[in-house]
Amino acid sequence: MKIYKIALRNIARNKRRSLLSGTAIAIAGFAIVFLFGFLAGMTKDMEQNLWTYMTGAVRVRHSDFDKYERLNPMHLAIPDYESLLETIEADPAVTAASPRINFPGRVPIGGIGSDEKVNVMGMGVDFVREASYQDYGRTLVEGCLPEAGTREAVIGRALAEKLGIGMGGKFTVLSQSGSRGSNAFTFTVVGMISLPMPGLEKVMFQVPLDTAQRFLWLPGQVQEILIKVNEKVDSPKAVAARLGELLSSDVPLNVWDYKEINGMAAMIDLAVKIYDIIGIIFFLLASTVIINTTIMVIFERMKEIGTLGAMGMTGRQLVKLFFLEALFISIVGALVGIAFGIALTGYLGVVGFDAMAKAMEGMDNMGIGTVIYPVLNFKSTVMVFIYSLAVTALATWWPSRRAAKITPVEALRHA
Amino acid sequence: MKLKRIITVLIGLAILTTSASAQSAEEIIQKMDELQTFDTMYNEGTMITEDRFGEKRSTYKAWSRGSQDFLIEFTNVEERGQKILRVDEELYLFYPDAEDIIPMHGAALKQSMFGDISYEDITEGRNTLDKYDVEMINSEIVDGEDCWVIEMIATSRDVPYPKQVVKVGKKDYVLREAEYYARSGRLLKIVDVIKVETFGDGRLMITEMVMEDQLRRGSSTRMRIDKLEIDPRLDDDLFSLRSLY
What is the spatial distance between Cα A11 and Cα A5, in angstroms, rounded to a whole number? Predict the structure, then answer.
């Protein structure tokens, strides 16, 4: 009889034992698929949030604005940005560009006798262009986007609650202007946005770019241009270097990629490595279950080993037998676990995973949102399957070799 | 016995001298306040701030009534129509594009109104003796003018600066220089009077001064009165919220 047939028969004969081993492998596979999917989702989410709301993949700014950012030097803006946009959008790696003005402000609440003011962060954007930059399909939860030239605004749902206003409500923002004075504007809420980062949602509102330019006394100017790039075509770093040479303006420009801008973004690479290490540690822990099960199986089956040895089976054949048994169980266990992992990760990838929402709050600076959408990729599926088999094979090898070295007499005496 | 009498006389003299100086300091401050306070006044002026980013210039029209109420309206193109009203010890901001009037209280008053000048700098009024204990320190020549140096320590927390040192001209009772300190003793701002002019009724008026915020390195703000009208007829409604719209 062929050894693989004996192995299959043994698996079928010891259903409980096989089920236990297979389940351990399935659970490990399932957990690792989900863990890698979750971590990949978190990394992607972090990158997306940074690119969309904070730094872009590449950001263009007046170089002195970066230097004096803490003083909020609104007047250090970029003139004639339209011509810069033409150059930017001609780059093959650029997928979208967003000219913007960010302006911190204060909104008085409680009427004329109150001194209560709410800190807000305004963003002037070209909504026609911005629709291809921000995912309004997902974030705009009520109403519509403002029309250019109006004093309409979309406002973070949490900020609206804080200000005590709803759709059609009005709020007045006091801010520093580009003329280095101050100005205040009253805006009408026409839409509500729900942002992935709750800290941002509590402060952010968006208004038409031309209105912001008028409000802040920045005619024809923007504070920054954020750029998204297709990393398959080129890296943000390479695009920043290329645009840095191509873009010319009347003011000195900083063209930086997001890792240069945000220290936390630079941590993404490190985070990915750490996540991989966490995954490996998790896998090693799971493999101890496999090793334990296999050793248990071998000690349970000493009598059988002795009998097989007495019947003339060689040590090599014994190793092969136990190895194949473990391998078959691993293949089935890993496939089942990975299938379940793919199903759950895929489902959460669509509906989002918010069980850790509370813990994630306050991580806005890192760009991490409260709802994570796990992502399935080659590493979290195919590689997990291969790892499962490799670890199981290695885990089986040592106890199988031990079993093979036992003489029939010794085996029968132990039994 | 003789020595004891001498000591008593010396102590008595010292007390008398101190009380005479304190009273004198109060009188000086009172006189200084009176000279700079008018029943009504209208002026047009320019504020120029210079800092690391260059020069920023704003022009304004201002109306005032007594030592407390005033209305400032900016006239330069960037801030045209913006108004600051102080009435009933409250400060309000009006912006042409805002539907709400913005009241300024508490910590908000510490914000910059223009360059080195904060909102609280313009809210202090001139009833100095109600809020400060004053003491004569010494005399000093400031820009060629012999001045009294008077230290003022706030008696309430309701003032922008807990301590001020003012230098007042002995000849004309006009402020020539002022230093504003934090509670910790840190020097916050310095005011330097550049120009004093005599007007119709012979009264002296500061028409140009420079304020330097010591926490804003390399920054200074110059305030200059270009046109002044003393005791014009002003509508009572001018110092009301209604006048802002």
Answer: 10
B81 to chain A, any CB pair closer than 8 A? The answer is no
Residue B28 has pLDDT above 80, yes or no: yes
CA distance A129 to A116: 36
d(CA A231, CA B137): 71
What is the average pLDDT score of chain B?
83
* B139-166 tens-digit pLDDT: 999 988 899 999 999 887 777 888 999 9
pLDDT at residue number A35: 83
Nearest C-alpha in A relative to B114:
A181
* Residue B230, beta-bridge partner list: B41
User: Rounded CA gap, B60 and B81, in Å?
Assistant: 10
Q: What is the largest CA-CA distance in chain B?
A: 81
For residues A6 and A321, is the Cβ–Cβ distance under 8 A?
Answer: yes
Residue B53 touches chain A, beta carbons under 8 Å = yes
Closest-CA residue in chain B for A181? B114
SS (H, E, C) A127-160: HHHHCCCCCHHHHEEEECCCCCCCCEEEEEHHHH
Q: Which residues contact A386 (CB under 8 A, 6 or more apart)?
A: none
* DSSP conformation class of A51: I
Contact B106 A115 (CB under 8 A): yes
Return the closest-CA partner of residue A207 out of A165, A183, A173.
Answer: A173
Q: Which of B71, B107, B111, B74 is nearest to B87 (CA)?
A: B71
Q: Is A14 exposed, middle or buried (0-12, 13-18, 19+ CB in 10 A)?
A: middle
3-state secondary structure labels for all residues of chain B = CHHHHHHHHHHHHHHHHHHHHHHHHHHHHHHHHHHHCCCEEEEEEEEEEEECCEEEEEEEEEEEECCCEEEEEECCCCCCCCEEEEECCEEEEECCCCCCCEEECHHHHHCEEECCEEHHHHCCCCCHHHHEEEEEEEEEEECCEEEEEEEEEECCCCCCCCEEEEEEECCCCCEEEEEEECCCCCEEEEEEEEEEEECCCCCEEEEEEEEEECCCCCCEEEEEEEEEEECCCCCHHHHCHHHHC
Cβ contacts (< 8 Å) between B104 and chain A: which residues?
115
Residue A124, CA atoms < 13 Å, CB-side half-sphere: 31
Average confidence (pLDDT) over A191-205? 91
> pTM of whole model > 0.95?
no
Contact A73, B53 (CB under 8 A): yes
Comparing CB atoms, the residue among B52, B74, B103 nearest residue A115 is B103
The torsion angle over the Cα atoms of residues B38, B44, B50 and B56, rounded to 10 degrees, is 140
- Mutate: best of A119, A165, A183, partner B, most B CBs <10 A: A183
Interior/surface letters A92-118, b for 16+ CB within 10 angstroms, e for the rest: ebbbbbbbbbbbebbbbbeeeeeeebb
CA distance B56 to chain A (A): 7
Instruction: Identify the pLDDT of residue A220.
Output: 92
A318, two tokens:
């014994």
Q: Read off the pLDDT of each residue in A349-375 and give the average, rounded to a whole number.
A: 72
Q: Do A186 and B99 touch (CB under 8 A)?
A: yes
Structure tokens at B222: 């110059």
Radius of gyration of chain A (CA): 30
Which tokens is B193 given? Answer: 């009077």
Domain B34-244 falls under CATH 2.60.40.420:
no
Is-contact A60 A86, C-beta < 8 A?
no
Distance CA A83, CA B124 (A): 50
**Angstrom distance (rounded) from CA A32 to CA A341:** 8
Q: How far apart are CA A375 and CA A334, in angstroms?
A: 19
